[in-house]
Amino acid sequence: MNQTEGVLNNNDFCNSNIRAIHDTMYVIGGKWKISIVACLGYRPMRFSELLREVEGIAGKVLSRELKDMETNQLIVRKVLDTKPISVLYHLTEYGKTLEELTLTIAEWGKTHRKQIIGK
Amino acid sequence: MNQTEGVLNNNDFCNSNIRAIHDTMYVIGGKWKISIVACLGYRPMRFSELLREVEGIAGKVLSRELKDMETNQLIVRKVLDTKPISVLYHLTEYGKTLEELTLTIAEWGKTHRKQIIGK
DNA sequence: CAGTATCCGGTTTGATACTG
DNA sequence: CAGTATCAAACCGGATACTG
User: Considering the entire predicted model, what is its pTM?
Assistant: First the structure.
């Protein structure tokens, strides 16, 4: 054929990565999940803390995202026996494997801030 | 020390990363953009090729995503003077800076495929 | 405090048909 | 081939009020 070389052609390589990307996105896709992972990467937080840290998110939405992430075993929800109850969310070991990703994403954003904003 | 080190406290650190993540997501957020970048990372492609490679995307949506990405200067649209016209999309240098990111995302998906699917 | 319930408009999508 | 037009359906997301 043309440009495709070797045994593994471009499309195979491409497709396997596309599938992998979709898989990843299934877990951390959506507007807020990566931000939540990034937050919890620094330390476990309570609901109200996340509400403050993840700027712009609505309570209802945060609630739903956290549930999704718990289902996907990225985070653990721990009810503390305090006076008015409080709940602590923290990353599971599995969830922590996403930290490299969040850092890469944050790095890119920092590096290209000017270009991003200058639209 | 451990978590809080130096002058910069956790929340500052957290917030600056959250902001950076939002910036990145502004550019590559949405359901398909990362997949498109990944595809074009292998080689320039035509509209119909992308339609095939990015499984599940609708023509209308691909069209819009490509326009966004052109506006954000991630890709270039090049009309070829062929019999029925064809159009080639390819990454700009700026767009290529996202490749590390797409690889990291794809890697994570591959590594955790079993865990992702086993839900 | 940590959510849930409800309302409700806006955006996104998908399918299909159509154009140059 | 490379899109655009159209329309209905699905989903999302914000505000507010309410509960244990």
Answer: 0.87
